[in-house]
Amino acid sequence: MTDTEKAPTYQDAPDKAEGEILPAQGETNELHRTFKARHIQMICLGANLSSGLFVSTGKALKYGSASGMLIGYSVVSIAVYLLMSLLTEITCIWPTSGSFIDHAARFVDPALGFAIGFCEWFAYMTIVASEAAIVRVLLTWWTTAIPTAACMTVFLAIVFAIHALPNRFFAEFEFLTACAKVTMMLILIFACIAMLAGAGSPPLHPLRLELHLRPRLPQRLQRQIMGISAGEARMPRWDMPRACKNLFVRLILFYELSIVFITLLVPYTSPDLLGTSSVAASPFVIALQNAHIPVLPSLLNAVILLGVCSNAAEAMYVASRILTSMSKMNMMPASFKKIDARGRPYLSLIATAICSTICTYINCSGTGAQIFTWFSSISSTVFFLAWLTVSITNIQMRKAVKAQNDPVFHLPFAFRLRGYPFPAIALLGMCLGCLGMMAYISVKPIDADTTAEGFFEMFLGVPVFVVAFLGYKVRFRTRVVDPKFAELRTGRRPLTGEEVRVLEEYGRLARWKRVVSYLRF
Questions:
Q1: To 10 degrees, the CA torsion angle through 436, 442, 447, 452?
Q2: Which of 32, 49, 158, 261 has the most C-beta neighbours closer than 10 Å?
Q3: What's the domain range around 491?
Q4: What residues have CB less than 8 Å from 413, skipping those under 6 apart?
Q5: Rounded to 5 degrees, what angle do the CA atoms 499, 493, 490 make?
Q6: Are 325 and 102 in contact (CB under 8 A)?
Q7: Which pLDDT tens digit goes with each residue over 54-97?
Q8: Cα–Cα distance for residue pair 414/447, rounded to 1 Å
Q9: Buried b (16+ CB within 10 A) or exposed e, 448-457
Q10: Residue 99 maps to which CATH number?
Q11: pLDDT band at 12 (very low <50, low <70, confident <90, very high)
Protein backbone atom coordinates (compact mmCIF):
# COMPACT_ATOMS: atom_id res chain seq x y z
CA MET A 1 0.00 0.00 0.00
CA THR A 2 1.41 3.39 -0.96
CA ASP A 3 1.79 6.35 1.36
CA THR A 4 -0.98 8.15 -0.44
CA GLU A 5 -3.34 5.26 0.17
CA LYS A 6 -2.54 5.23 3.87
CA ALA A 7 -3.16 8.92 4.35
CA PRO A 8 -6.80 9.83 5.04
CA THR A 9 -8.71 11.21 2.09
CA TYR A 10 -12.37 11.96 1.58
CA GLN A 11 -12.47 12.84 -2.09
CA ASP A 12 -13.31 9.34 -3.36
CA ALA A 13 -16.14 8.60 -0.94
CA PRO A 14 -19.24 7.49 -2.83
CA ASP A 15 -22.37 9.58 -2.68
CA LYS A 16 -25.41 8.06 -1.04
CA ALA A 17 -29.09 8.64 -1.44
CA GLU A 18 -30.61 11.45 0.59
CA GLY A 19 -31.67 10.35 4.04
CA GLU A 20 -28.91 7.77 4.44
CA ILE A 21 -25.83 8.09 6.62
CA LEU A 22 -22.71 8.60 4.56
CA PRO A 23 -19.97 6.44 6.12
CA ALA A 24 -16.33 7.44 6.22
CA GLN A 25 -14.10 6.12 3.46
CA GLY A 26 -13.23 2.44 3.85
CA GLU A 27 -16.10 1.76 6.25
CA THR A 28 -17.54 -1.74 5.93
CA ASN A 29 -19.93 -1.75 8.89
CA GLU A 30 -21.02 0.83 11.42
CA LEU A 31 -21.40 1.33 15.12
CA HIS A 32 -25.00 0.88 16.21
CA ARG A 33 -26.95 4.04 17.04
CA THR A 34 -28.38 2.77 20.34
CA PHE A 35 -27.74 5.77 22.63
CA LYS A 36 -30.79 7.79 23.61
CA ALA A 37 -30.82 11.38 24.86
CA ARG A 38 -30.85 10.30 28.50
CA HIS A 39 -27.81 8.09 27.91
CA ILE A 40 -25.78 10.86 26.29
CA GLN A 41 -26.69 13.44 28.92
CA MET A 42 -25.92 11.20 31.88
CA ILE A 43 -22.80 9.65 30.35
CA CYS A 44 -21.34 13.11 29.80
CA LEU A 45 -22.47 14.36 33.21
CA GLY A 46 -21.14 11.30 35.00
CA ALA A 47 -17.80 11.61 33.20
CA ASN A 48 -17.25 14.94 34.93
CA LEU A 49 -18.60 14.05 38.38
CA SER A 50 -15.47 12.03 39.02
CA SER A 51 -13.02 11.54 41.85
CA GLY A 52 -11.45 14.82 40.75
CA LEU A 53 -14.44 16.76 42.08
CA PHE A 54 -14.84 14.73 45.26
CA VAL A 55 -11.16 14.36 46.24
CA SER A 56 -8.79 16.47 44.10
CA THR A 57 -10.57 19.69 45.04
CA GLY A 58 -8.70 19.44 48.34
CA LYS A 59 -5.37 19.91 46.58
CA ALA A 60 -6.82 22.72 44.48
CA LEU A 61 -8.05 24.47 47.62
CA LYS A 62 -4.72 24.03 49.42
CA TYR A 63 -2.52 25.43 46.66
CA GLY A 64 -4.94 27.80 44.97
CA SER A 65 -6.79 29.25 48.00
CA ALA A 66 -10.50 29.99 47.95
CA SER A 67 -10.27 32.86 45.47
CA GLY A 68 -7.90 31.07 43.10
CA MET A 69 -10.09 27.99 43.12
CA LEU A 70 -13.22 29.98 42.29
CA ILE A 71 -11.44 31.83 39.48
CA GLY A 72 -9.95 28.68 37.97
CA TYR A 73 -13.17 26.68 38.02
CA SER A 74 -15.20 29.61 36.69
CA VAL A 75 -12.85 30.17 33.75
CA VAL A 76 -12.89 26.51 32.81
CA SER A 77 -16.67 26.36 33.17
CA ILE A 78 -16.97 29.11 30.57
CA ALA A 79 -14.50 27.31 28.31
CA VAL A 80 -16.49 24.10 28.73
CA TYR A 81 -19.68 25.78 27.54
CA LEU A 82 -17.91 27.23 24.50
CA LEU A 83 -16.41 23.83 23.73
CA MET A 84 -19.74 22.03 24.00
CA SER A 85 -21.41 24.61 21.78
CA LEU A 86 -18.76 24.26 19.06
CA LEU A 87 -18.88 20.47 19.27
CA THR A 88 -22.66 20.52 19.05
CA GLU A 89 -22.70 22.64 15.90
CA ILE A 90 -20.32 20.44 13.95
CA THR A 91 -21.51 17.06 15.26
CA CYS A 92 -25.12 17.84 14.35
CA ILE A 93 -23.96 17.87 10.72
CA TRP A 94 -21.19 15.23 10.83
CA PRO A 95 -22.02 12.92 13.79
CA THR A 96 -19.11 10.53 13.26
CA SER A 97 -17.62 8.45 16.06
CA GLY A 98 -14.29 10.14 15.36
CA SER A 99 -15.81 13.52 16.20
CA PHE A 100 -13.25 16.33 16.24
CA ILE A 101 -10.46 13.94 15.16
CA ASP A 102 -12.26 13.23 11.90
CA HIS A 103 -13.22 16.90 11.58
CA ALA A 104 -9.63 18.10 12.14
CA ALA A 105 -8.34 15.82 9.37
CA ARG A 106 -11.21 16.87 7.11
CA PHE A 107 -11.04 20.66 7.53
CA VAL A 108 -7.55 21.52 8.81
CA ASP A 109 -4.80 18.95 8.17
CA PRO A 110 -4.71 15.14 8.29
CA ALA A 111 -1.57 15.44 10.43
CA LEU A 112 -3.54 17.38 13.04
CA GLY A 113 -6.20 14.68 13.08
CA PHE A 114 -3.60 11.97 13.59
CA ALA A 115 -1.69 13.86 16.30
CA ILE A 116 -4.71 14.74 18.42
CA GLY A 117 -6.25 11.31 17.82
CA PHE A 118 -3.15 9.43 18.95
CA CYS A 119 -2.67 11.65 22.01
CA GLU A 120 -6.35 11.38 22.95
CA TRP A 121 -6.26 7.59 22.65
CA PHE A 122 -3.12 7.42 24.77
CA ALA A 123 -4.56 9.79 27.38
CA TYR A 124 -7.82 7.87 27.76
CA MET A 125 -5.95 4.57 27.83
CA THR A 126 -3.84 5.79 30.76
CA ILE A 127 -6.98 7.06 32.52
CA VAL A 128 -8.13 3.43 32.80
CA ALA A 129 -4.86 2.59 34.54
CA SER A 130 -5.07 5.72 36.71
CA GLU A 131 -8.53 4.78 37.94
CA ALA A 132 -7.23 1.29 38.76
CA ALA A 133 -4.59 2.88 41.00
CA ILE A 134 -7.25 5.02 42.69
CA VAL A 135 -9.26 1.92 43.67
CA ARG A 136 -6.53 0.75 46.06
CA VAL A 137 -6.40 4.19 47.67
CA LEU A 138 -10.17 4.27 48.14
CA LEU A 139 -10.26 0.83 49.73
CA THR A 140 -7.76 1.92 52.39
CA TRP A 141 -10.63 3.94 53.90
CA TRP A 142 -12.03 0.61 55.14
CA THR A 143 -9.10 -1.85 55.08
CA THR A 144 -5.44 -2.17 54.10
CA ALA A 145 -5.42 -5.98 53.98
CA ILE A 146 -6.21 -6.33 50.27
CA PRO A 147 -3.07 -6.56 48.05
CA THR A 148 -2.66 -3.81 45.48
CA ALA A 149 -2.34 -6.19 42.52
CA ALA A 150 -5.52 -8.01 43.55
CA CYS A 151 -7.48 -4.75 43.71
CA MET A 152 -6.28 -3.73 40.27
CA THR A 153 -7.00 -7.16 38.77
CA VAL A 154 -10.59 -7.28 40.03
CA PHE A 155 -11.15 -3.70 38.93
CA LEU A 156 -9.88 -4.33 35.39
CA ALA A 157 -11.98 -7.49 35.15
CA ILE A 158 -15.12 -5.49 35.99
CA VAL A 159 -14.32 -2.79 33.43
CA PHE A 160 -13.54 -5.31 30.69
CA ALA A 161 -16.71 -7.29 31.48
CA ILE A 162 -18.83 -4.17 30.94
CA HIS A 163 -17.50 -3.85 27.41
CA ALA A 164 -17.88 -7.56 26.71
CA LEU A 165 -21.64 -6.98 26.78
CA PRO A 166 -23.64 -5.19 24.05
CA ASN A 167 -23.42 -1.40 23.95
CA ARG A 168 -26.82 -0.89 25.54
CA PHE A 169 -25.55 -2.49 28.76
CA PHE A 170 -22.66 -0.04 28.87
CA ALA A 171 -25.12 2.83 28.32
CA GLU A 172 -27.43 1.65 31.10
CA PHE A 173 -24.53 1.05 33.49
CA GLU A 174 -23.25 4.58 32.88
CA PHE A 175 -26.76 5.97 33.30
CA LEU A 176 -27.24 4.27 36.68
CA THR A 177 -23.79 5.20 38.03
CA ALA A 178 -24.28 8.80 36.91
CA CYS A 179 -27.61 8.86 38.75
CA ALA A 180 -25.83 7.60 41.87
CA LYS A 181 -23.18 10.33 41.61
CA VAL A 182 -25.80 13.03 41.03
CA THR A 183 -27.74 11.81 44.07
CA MET A 184 -24.56 11.90 46.15
CA MET A 185 -23.82 15.43 44.99
CA LEU A 186 -27.32 16.56 45.96
CA ILE A 187 -26.91 14.96 49.39
CA LEU A 188 -23.57 16.74 49.87
CA ILE A 189 -25.01 20.08 48.75
CA PHE A 190 -27.92 19.81 51.20
CA ALA A 191 -25.52 18.65 53.92
CA CYS A 192 -23.33 21.70 53.28
CA ILE A 193 -26.36 23.99 53.47
CA ALA A 194 -27.34 22.35 56.76
CA MET A 195 -23.83 22.80 58.17
CA LEU A 196 -23.77 26.44 57.13
CA ALA A 197 -27.12 26.84 58.89
CA GLY A 198 -25.66 25.45 62.10
CA ALA A 199 -26.06 21.68 61.92
CA GLY A 200 -23.22 19.85 63.64
CA SER A 201 -20.27 21.93 64.75
CA PRO A 202 -18.23 22.95 61.69
CA PRO A 203 -15.68 25.72 62.22
CA LEU A 204 -16.96 28.12 59.57
CA HIS A 205 -14.28 29.71 57.44
CA PRO A 206 -15.04 33.18 56.05
CA LEU A 207 -14.54 33.52 52.30
CA ARG A 208 -11.61 35.93 51.99
CA LEU A 209 -11.18 37.82 48.75
CA GLU A 210 -7.41 37.46 48.62
CA LEU A 211 -5.81 36.77 45.26
CA HIS A 212 -2.74 34.53 45.29
CA LEU A 213 -2.26 34.36 41.52
CA ARG A 214 -2.54 30.59 41.75
CA PRO A 215 -5.79 29.70 40.01
CA ARG A 216 -6.42 25.97 40.09
CA LEU A 217 -8.16 24.25 37.19
CA PRO A 218 -10.48 21.25 37.52
CA GLN A 219 -8.90 17.98 36.44
CA ARG A 220 -10.17 15.64 33.71
CA LEU A 221 -13.22 17.49 32.52
CA GLN A 222 -14.10 14.96 29.84
CA ARG A 223 -16.19 17.06 27.54
CA GLN A 224 -14.92 15.31 24.40
CA ILE A 225 -17.02 12.27 25.21
CA MET A 226 -20.10 14.18 24.05
CA GLY A 227 -18.70 14.45 20.53
CA ILE A 228 -17.49 10.84 20.47
CA SER A 229 -20.87 9.51 21.62
CA ALA A 230 -22.62 11.40 18.80
CA GLY A 231 -21.53 8.60 16.48
CA GLU A 232 -23.89 6.27 18.35
CA ALA A 233 -26.73 8.70 19.06
CA ARG A 234 -30.13 7.85 17.61
CA MET A 235 -31.07 11.47 16.79
CA PRO A 236 -27.94 13.67 16.90
CA ARG A 237 -29.74 16.87 15.84
CA TRP A 238 -32.19 16.51 18.72
CA ASP A 239 -29.94 14.89 21.32
CA MET A 240 -26.75 16.95 21.07
CA PRO A 241 -28.10 20.53 21.54
CA ARG A 242 -30.23 19.43 24.47
CA ALA A 243 -27.31 17.57 26.03
CA CYS A 244 -25.15 20.67 25.64
CA LYS A 245 -27.59 22.99 27.42
CA ASN A 246 -28.59 20.50 30.10
CA LEU A 247 -25.06 19.47 30.92
CA PHE A 248 -23.76 23.01 31.19
CA VAL A 249 -26.49 24.04 33.63
CA ARG A 250 -26.05 20.92 35.74
CA LEU A 251 -22.27 21.12 35.80
CA ILE A 252 -22.40 24.77 36.83
CA LEU A 253 -24.88 23.81 39.54
CA PHE A 254 -22.73 21.01 40.91
CA TYR A 255 -19.26 22.47 40.41
CA GLU A 256 -19.79 26.10 41.32
CA LEU A 257 -22.07 25.39 44.29
CA SER A 258 -19.66 22.75 45.53
CA ILE A 259 -16.69 25.09 45.32
CA VAL A 260 -18.53 27.87 47.14
CA PHE A 261 -19.54 25.52 49.96
CA ILE A 262 -16.05 24.03 50.18
CA THR A 263 -14.43 27.44 50.55
CA LEU A 264 -16.94 28.41 53.24
CA LEU A 265 -16.56 25.23 55.29
CA VAL A 266 -12.86 24.34 54.95
CA PRO A 267 -9.98 26.85 55.23
CA TYR A 268 -7.27 26.48 52.60
CA THR A 269 -4.75 26.42 55.46
CA SER A 270 -6.28 23.25 56.92
CA PRO A 271 -3.55 20.62 57.56
CA ASP A 272 -6.07 17.89 56.72
CA LEU A 273 -5.80 18.85 53.04
CA LEU A 274 -2.25 17.49 52.97
CA GLY A 275 -0.55 14.26 53.88
CA THR A 276 -2.81 11.81 52.05
CA SER A 277 -4.13 11.12 48.57
CA SER A 278 -7.15 9.20 49.85
CA VAL A 279 -10.72 10.32 50.33
CA ALA A 280 -9.68 11.60 53.77
CA ALA A 281 -8.20 14.63 51.97
CA SER A 282 -11.55 15.45 50.37
CA PRO A 283 -12.82 18.82 51.61
CA PHE A 284 -16.30 17.29 51.75
CA VAL A 285 -15.07 14.58 54.14
CA ILE A 286 -13.14 17.13 56.21
CA ALA A 287 -16.26 19.29 56.57
CA LEU A 288 -18.44 16.28 57.47
CA GLN A 289 -15.95 15.04 60.05
CA ASN A 290 -15.64 18.50 61.57
CA ALA A 291 -19.43 18.51 61.86
CA HIS A 292 -19.32 15.03 63.47
CA ILE A 293 -21.47 13.40 60.77
CA PRO A 294 -20.07 9.83 60.69
CA VAL A 295 -22.13 8.05 58.01
CA LEU A 296 -21.75 10.27 54.95
CA PRO A 297 -17.94 9.93 54.53
CA SER A 298 -18.23 6.15 54.06
CA LEU A 299 -21.20 6.60 51.73
CA LEU A 300 -19.20 9.14 49.72
CA ASN A 301 -16.27 6.75 49.46
CA ALA A 302 -18.58 4.00 48.18
CA VAL A 303 -20.06 6.29 45.53
CA ILE A 304 -16.57 7.41 44.46
CA LEU A 305 -15.55 3.75 44.16
CA LEU A 306 -18.56 3.11 41.92
CA GLY A 307 -17.75 6.26 39.96
CA VAL A 308 -14.17 5.14 39.40
CA CYS A 309 -15.47 1.99 37.65
CA SER A 310 -17.77 4.18 35.58
CA ASN A 311 -14.99 6.59 34.61
CA ALA A 312 -12.69 3.76 33.57
CA ALA A 313 -15.46 2.22 31.45
CA GLU A 314 -16.05 5.60 29.80
CA ALA A 315 -12.34 6.04 29.13
CA MET A 316 -12.13 2.61 27.50
CA TYR A 317 -15.23 3.40 25.45
CA VAL A 318 -13.73 6.66 24.14
CA ALA A 319 -10.28 5.16 23.51
CA SER A 320 -11.68 2.23 21.52
CA ARG A 321 -13.91 4.50 19.41
CA ILE A 322 -10.99 6.80 18.67
CA LEU A 323 -8.89 3.83 17.54
CA THR A 324 -11.73 2.56 15.33
CA SER A 325 -12.31 5.96 13.78
CA MET A 326 -8.62 6.46 13.05
CA SER A 327 -8.54 3.04 11.42
CA LYS A 328 -11.41 4.04 9.14
CA MET A 329 -9.40 7.15 8.26
CA ASN A 330 -6.43 4.91 7.32
CA MET A 331 -4.38 6.26 10.22
CA MET A 332 -4.28 2.96 12.12
CA PRO A 333 -4.20 -0.70 11.00
CA ALA A 334 -7.32 -1.70 9.08
CA SER A 335 -8.15 -4.49 11.53
CA PHE A 336 -9.22 -1.95 14.16
CA LYS A 337 -12.20 -0.88 12.06
CA LYS A 338 -13.92 -4.26 12.45
CA ILE A 339 -17.19 -4.16 14.36
CA ASP A 340 -19.10 -7.24 15.47
CA ALA A 341 -22.83 -7.93 15.11
CA ARG A 342 -23.56 -6.25 18.46
CA GLY A 343 -21.94 -2.98 17.43
CA ARG A 344 -18.70 -3.38 19.39
CA PRO A 345 -15.30 -2.54 17.85
CA TYR A 346 -13.89 -5.66 19.44
CA LEU A 347 -10.30 -5.47 18.19
CA SER A 348 -10.00 -1.83 19.28
CA LEU A 349 -11.38 -2.80 22.68
CA ILE A 350 -8.91 -5.68 22.99
CA ALA A 351 -5.93 -3.50 22.00
CA THR A 352 -6.95 -0.77 24.45
CA ALA A 353 -7.52 -3.33 27.20
CA ILE A 354 -4.06 -4.85 26.71
CA CYS A 355 -2.32 -1.46 26.78
CA SER A 356 -4.34 -0.37 29.83
CA THR A 357 -3.44 -3.58 31.65
CA ILE A 358 0.27 -3.09 30.95
CA CYS A 359 0.15 0.49 32.25
CA THR A 360 -1.79 -0.62 35.32
CA TYR A 361 0.76 -3.20 36.43
CA ILE A 362 3.72 -0.98 35.54
CA ASN A 363 2.37 1.31 38.24
CA CYS A 364 2.95 -1.39 40.87
CA SER A 365 6.75 -0.96 40.87
CA GLY A 366 8.71 2.06 42.06
CA THR A 367 10.44 2.93 38.77
CA GLY A 368 7.37 1.99 36.80
CA ALA A 369 5.24 4.29 38.94
CA GLN A 370 7.40 7.26 37.94
CA ILE A 371 7.13 6.33 34.26
CA PHE A 372 3.38 5.87 34.63
CA THR A 373 3.12 9.31 36.23
CA TRP A 374 4.72 10.81 33.14
CA PHE A 375 2.38 8.86 30.88
CA SER A 376 -0.75 9.80 32.80
CA SER A 377 0.30 13.46 32.86
CA ILE A 378 -0.23 13.53 29.10
CA SER A 379 -3.96 13.76 29.74
CA SER A 380 -3.51 17.07 31.59
CA THR A 381 -2.30 18.92 28.50
CA VAL A 382 -3.90 16.77 25.79
CA PHE A 383 -7.39 17.82 26.80
CA PHE A 384 -6.49 21.49 26.34
CA LEU A 385 -4.90 20.61 22.99
CA ALA A 386 -8.13 18.84 22.04
CA TRP A 387 -10.16 21.92 22.95
CA LEU A 388 -7.75 24.03 20.91
CA THR A 389 -8.23 21.65 17.98
CA VAL A 390 -12.03 21.94 18.24
CA SER A 391 -11.90 25.74 18.02
CA ILE A 392 -9.52 25.73 15.03
CA THR A 393 -11.54 23.03 13.28
CA ASN A 394 -14.79 24.94 13.74
CA ILE A 395 -13.26 28.08 12.24
CA GLN A 396 -12.01 26.14 9.22
CA MET A 397 -15.35 24.35 8.84
CA ARG A 398 -17.14 27.69 8.63
CA LYS A 399 -14.67 28.88 6.03
CA ALA A 400 -15.26 25.73 3.95
CA VAL A 401 -19.05 26.08 4.11
CA LYS A 402 -18.80 29.72 3.05
CA ALA A 403 -16.24 29.08 0.29
CA GLN A 404 -18.37 26.32 -1.26
CA ASN A 405 -21.71 28.11 -0.73
CA ASP A 406 -23.07 25.08 1.08
CA PRO A 407 -26.61 25.68 2.43
CA VAL A 408 -26.15 23.42 5.46
CA PHE A 409 -26.89 26.22 7.94
CA HIS A 410 -29.97 27.36 6.05
CA LEU A 411 -31.76 24.01 5.89
CA PRO A 412 -34.92 23.45 7.98
CA PHE A 413 -34.10 22.79 11.65
CA ALA A 414 -30.40 23.43 11.09
CA PHE A 415 -28.45 24.07 14.29
CA ARG A 416 -26.32 27.20 14.06
CA LEU A 417 -24.25 28.63 16.87
CA ARG A 418 -25.12 32.19 17.83
CA GLY A 419 -22.51 34.92 18.14
CA TYR A 420 -20.05 33.28 15.76
CA PRO A 421 -17.03 33.65 15.55
CA PHE A 422 -16.78 34.85 19.16
CA PRO A 423 -17.17 31.36 20.77
CA ALA A 424 -14.40 29.84 18.64
CA ILE A 425 -12.02 32.76 19.12
CA ALA A 426 -12.72 32.96 22.86
CA LEU A 427 -12.07 29.24 23.35
CA LEU A 428 -8.91 29.50 21.25
CA GLY A 429 -7.62 32.32 23.45
CA MET A 430 -8.49 30.52 26.69
CA CYS A 431 -6.75 27.33 25.63
CA LEU A 432 -3.61 29.16 24.52
CA GLY A 433 -3.59 31.03 27.83
CA CYS A 434 -3.96 27.83 29.87
CA LEU A 435 -1.24 26.05 27.88
CA GLY A 436 1.02 29.07 28.29
CA MET A 437 0.54 29.06 32.07
CA MET A 438 1.18 25.32 32.22
CA ALA A 439 4.38 25.79 30.21
CA TYR A 440 5.57 28.52 32.58
CA ILE A 441 4.78 26.51 35.71
CA SER A 442 6.46 23.39 34.29
CA VAL A 443 9.68 25.37 33.77
CA LYS A 444 9.42 27.48 36.94
CA PRO A 445 7.22 25.60 39.41
CA ILE A 446 5.82 27.43 42.42
CA ASP A 447 7.61 26.68 45.70
CA ALA A 448 9.79 24.04 44.04
CA ASP A 449 13.00 23.68 42.07
CA THR A 450 13.03 23.23 38.31
CA THR A 451 13.61 19.56 37.44
CA ALA A 452 13.24 17.38 34.37
CA GLU A 453 10.82 15.15 36.28
CA GLY A 454 8.64 18.13 37.14
CA PHE A 455 8.61 19.30 33.52
CA PHE A 456 7.57 15.89 32.19
CA GLU A 457 4.86 15.52 34.82
CA MET A 458 3.35 18.87 33.84
CA PHE A 459 3.96 19.32 30.12
CA LEU A 460 4.79 15.97 28.50
CA GLY A 461 1.65 16.02 26.34
CA VAL A 462 2.79 18.97 24.22
CA PRO A 463 6.10 17.51 22.93
CA VAL A 464 4.34 14.17 22.28
CA PHE A 465 1.69 16.01 20.26
CA VAL A 466 4.30 17.99 18.30
CA VAL A 467 6.32 14.86 17.47
CA ALA A 468 3.19 13.01 16.33
CA PHE A 469 2.08 15.97 14.20
CA LEU A 470 5.45 16.56 12.52
CA GLY A 471 6.16 12.85 12.10
CA TYR A 472 2.88 12.21 10.30
CA LYS A 473 3.20 15.37 8.22
CA VAL A 474 6.71 14.52 7.05
CA ARG A 475 5.91 10.84 6.48
CA PHE A 476 2.82 11.44 4.34
CA ARG A 477 3.59 14.98 3.16
CA THR A 478 0.16 16.26 4.10
CA ARG A 479 -0.98 19.79 3.37
CA VAL A 480 -3.31 22.20 5.06
CA VAL A 481 -6.79 21.67 3.63
CA ASP A 482 -8.00 24.41 1.28
CA PRO A 483 -11.53 25.44 2.38
CA LYS A 484 -12.61 25.46 -1.28
CA PHE A 485 -11.87 21.75 -1.59
CA ALA A 486 -12.74 20.48 1.89
CA GLU A 487 -15.02 17.43 1.80
CA LEU A 488 -18.48 18.41 3.05
CA ARG A 489 -20.51 15.33 2.08
CA THR A 490 -18.75 12.34 3.60
CA GLY A 491 -20.17 11.40 6.99
CA ARG A 492 -22.95 13.97 6.67
CA ARG A 493 -26.26 12.88 8.14
CA PRO A 494 -29.51 14.42 6.86
CA LEU A 495 -32.40 14.53 9.32
CA THR A 496 -34.50 11.40 9.62
CA GLY A 497 -38.29 11.44 9.60
CA GLU A 498 -38.34 10.80 13.36
CA GLU A 499 -36.06 13.78 14.03
CA VAL A 500 -38.19 16.07 11.86
CA ARG A 501 -41.34 14.98 13.69
CA VAL A 502 -39.78 15.54 17.12
CA LEU A 503 -38.40 18.96 16.15
CA GLU A 504 -41.73 20.04 14.68
CA GLU A 505 -43.58 19.02 17.85
CA TYR A 506 -41.03 20.89 19.96
CA GLY A 507 -41.37 24.00 17.77
CA ARG A 508 -45.14 24.10 18.35
CA LEU A 509 -44.74 24.17 22.14
CA ALA A 510 -45.16 27.38 24.12
CA ARG A 511 -41.91 28.91 25.38
CA TRP A 512 -42.48 27.87 28.99
CA LYS A 513 -43.19 24.30 27.93
CA ARG A 514 -39.90 24.24 26.01
CA VAL A 515 -38.07 25.27 29.17
CA VAL A 516 -39.88 22.64 31.23
CA SER A 517 -39.02 19.98 28.64
CA TYR A 518 -35.34 20.35 29.58
CA LEU A 519 -36.14 19.01 33.03
CA ARG A 520 -36.85 15.65 31.44
CA PHE A 521 -34.30 13.37 29.78
A1: -170
A2: 49
A3: 3-517
A4: 237, 495, 499, 500, 503
A5: 180
A6: yes
A7: 766 777 777 777 777 778 778 888 888 888 889 888 888 888 76
A8: 52
A9: eeeeeebbbb
A10: 1.20.1740.10
A11: very low
Q: How far apart are CA 331 and CA 325, in angstroms?
A: 9
Residue 118: φ, ψ to 5°: -65, -45
The 3-state DSSP class for residue 35 equals strand
* 407, 229 Cβ separation under 8 angstroms: no
- Render pLDDT for 352-393 as a digit per residue (tens, 0 to 9): 999 999 888 887 765 555 665 666 677 778 888 988 999 999
Q: Is the pTM higher than 0.85?
A: no
pLDDT of residue 473: 94
Report H helices in 223-294. Answer: 224-229, 236-265, 283-290
Give burial (CB, 10 Å; 0-12/13-18/19+) of 511.
Answer: exposed
* 481 has pLDDT over 90: yes
Question: In the chain, what is the straight-line distance between the N-terminal and C-terminal CA atoms, in Å?
Answer: 47
Average pLDDT over residues 203-224: 47
Range in 134-143, 243-252, 253-262 with the lowest mean pLDDT: 243-252
Q: Mean of the pLDDT values across residues 340-345?
A: 78
Q: How far apart, in whole angstroms, are the C-alpha atoms of residue 392 and residue 30?
A: 28
DSSP characters over 337-356: G---TTS--HHHHHHHHHHH
3-class SS of residue 188 = helix
The number of domains in the chain is 1
**CA nearest 262: which of 213, 199, 189?**
189
